[in-house]
Amino acid sequence: MLVRRIARPLLASSFIYGGIQTLRNPQSRVPGATPIVEQLTEVADKQLPVQVPRDVEQWVKINAGLQVGAGALLALGRFPRFSALALATSLVPTTLAGHRFWEHEDPKERFGQSANFAKNTSMLGGLLIAAVDTEGRPSVGWLTRKTAGRAAAAAEASYERASKKAAKAQKRAAKQVKRVTH
């Protein structure tokens, strides 16, 4: 559909541009990302059997690279549901790190950060819609249920046929027994 061909690149453009800018200058994002990375690594260390890296700049670069890659895939219409989900996942820490409006006292700065926070939550909504968009085709869940239903019906039909054959075989065997004994 034409709308998807236009909307996906428009939605992806911000991620591609922002990711490239961040890869060019990751140090500018490190101060805002530090509290988020510290929280994530603390939780990960408790949940995972391995220790995750604590280098904030590395996490910033990984997130930026993910945004460029997934943004390009979304813009090209390749793996659109997966790429939209990847972008949505990367947008949450990006928003929490970059637009902490609640920490600003200056009304102008607070307004700017809250506007960007709202913009990012709007983009998150668009990404979530894109992540569940099946383009008019049946979803994986629907296909799975339909296939399971067909498989169950086929198994039941096979069972019925096998039961009928077994009943016929029993009747033939019973007739042969009667002939032999008489």
Provide structural commentary.
- The model has no long low-confidence stretch (mean pLDDT 92).
- This protein has 6 helices and no strands.
- The chain is mostly helical and 182 residues long.
- It is elongated.
- It starts with a helix and ends with a helix.
- It has 2 domains: 2-132, no CATH class; 140-182.
Task: Write a brief caption for the model.
With 182 residues, the chain is mostly helical. Helix content is 82%, strand content 0%.
List the helices and strands and how they pair.
Blueprint: H1 2-24, H2 30-47, H3 56-76, H4 80-98, H5 107-132, H6 140-181
Helix pairs in contact: 1-3, 2-3, 2-4, 3-4, 4-5
Helix content range: over 70%
Broad structural category: mainly alpha
Number of strands: 0
Report the principal-axis shape: elongated
- Distance from first to last alpha carbon: 78 Å
- If helices are DSSP runs of H or I spanning 4 or more residues, what is the number of helices? 6
Overall tally of domains = 2
Helices and strands, in N-to-C order?
HHHHHH
**Unreliable segments of 5+ consecutive residues:** none
Report mean pLDDT, rounded to a whole number: 92
Strand content: under 5%
> Rg to the nearest angstrom?
29 Å
Biggest sheet record: none
